[in-house]
Fold:
Amino acid sequence: MIGRFFKKFYLHIVIWTILLFLPFITYLYQPDKIAEFKPYSGISHLVNILFLATSFYLHCYYVAPKYFFSHRRIFVSIILFGFLAYVALNYAIVYFNPNGELAHFTKENILFVRLVIGPAIIYSLCMITSSMIFLYGEQARQKELNKQIALEKTKAELTILKLQISPHFLFNTLNNIRWLIRKQSPDSEDTIIKLSEILRYILYEVDGPKVELFKEIEHMRNFIALQTLRLPVTGNIQLEIENDLKNRMIPPLLFIHFVENAFKYGVDSKNTPDIIFQFIKIPGGIAFKSSNKILQHNHPRVNEGIGLANIQRRLQLLYPNKHHLSINKNDQGYFEVILKLTTDED
Structure:
């Protein structure tokens, strides 16, 4: 572990070591001046280096990550406060110097340069370097995050593709269509259209990172309509969209897993199903709610648990600190899923 630490920060260690011993390099070439060395100068230089190093790493690993992108005013205020603290530190060093540096700088009219201009240049270089390291690391982290998002999206698309274009799903849907055609039902043509729209949406419209919310809702509507066809017992199946819900861009295939699970556990051959899906507007985003009466009490299979884990991982990548997923079973025997997304859109 120590070896990994030095491997990561060896350049930092070398640079700070050079800065620490830089004022003493002259003694290598002029050893006779060692007798003139004043301990107070060495201590004040060490205090300066410790202050700059502390400011450097606090800025790079705490202040910049927390405030650079979200709270610029606080970010600038912290930098100004650090600069004033550095000026105060230098003033204290000069003021308490027993060698009379304060009187010397005042007499030479360079007190302002020593206490303000010099510290401003040094502190600015320190903060600029720290910010550059932070931004470089942030850029590398963002690239890695984008790769993970793309990978998780691909996994999600493949999983949903298997769920929706599986032979079981297609055979059931085609059998229902055949049954409608034999009955000469006017719904047969509409059912074929819904199936073709589902296939078209999955195959052609989810290539990008985001799709329109209303397209995703329409896809869900078609999926629900086809699932409803094969219900052995007629029940209450609803998809509710709040009237003032605005269209916005969201990652594709984000809700369909919960819809599929609602039909899987909310339908049996004897009882009346009660399944409700809702899209609700919330401040700064949207909420999706799925509620189904639990009719099938068999335990979830392993791949279903993996599917939920994939969704949770995908949400963490796409909406870090901007989502809330709640999954629970209430006392009335209903299974509820509530997913809130902050999309930062009014």
Summary: The two ends are 47 Å apart (CA to CA). The chain has three domains: 1-34, 38-143, 165-342.
